[in-house]
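Reopening this one. Same input as before:
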Amino acid sequence: MIKEALLEIFERDLGKLKEEISLYTDENNLWKVEKQISNSGGNLALHLIGNLNHFIGATLGNTGYVRERDKEFSDKNIPIQKILDNIDATIIVVKNTLSNLPAEDFEKVFPLEKHGQIVKTDFMLLHLLAHLEYHLGQINYHRRLTE
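Same output, byte for byte:
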C-alpha cells in the first residue's frame, strides 16, 4: 500500500513542480531573490532534483548519481527547459527505484542517517515527500511574487 501511494504522490507532485517551473513567464524571474527571500524558485527546483536523485536514486536505486548540494543553491540562469528535462529524468528515477524496491525494504533501516538519526526507509520516503511539498509551496509563492 505505502509503495503504491508513494509512487503516485511523488509522480503527481513532481508533475506539479514541472508545472510551477513552466508557469514562470520570464526566465529571469526564476532566479530572483530579494528582500527576505533567500532562495530562488530555480535554486529550489535544483535542490529538489538533487535531493531526490541522491536519496532515492543513488541511495536506494544505485544509479551512481553524485550530488553537488552547494551547486543546487549557487548555480544560476539555467534554462527552464533544462530544469524541466531534469525533473522528467527525476520522475523516471523515482518511479523506477520505488517500483523495483521490494515491499519488505520499506521496513528496513534506510542506508543513510537522517540528521544523525537511524530511520526506516518508509519514514525517510515520507520525509522526502514532505520536503518536496514544502519547497513546492515555496516555489509557487516565489513565482507569484516575482511574476
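So the earlier flakiness isn't reproducible anymore. For the record, The mean pLDDT is 96.
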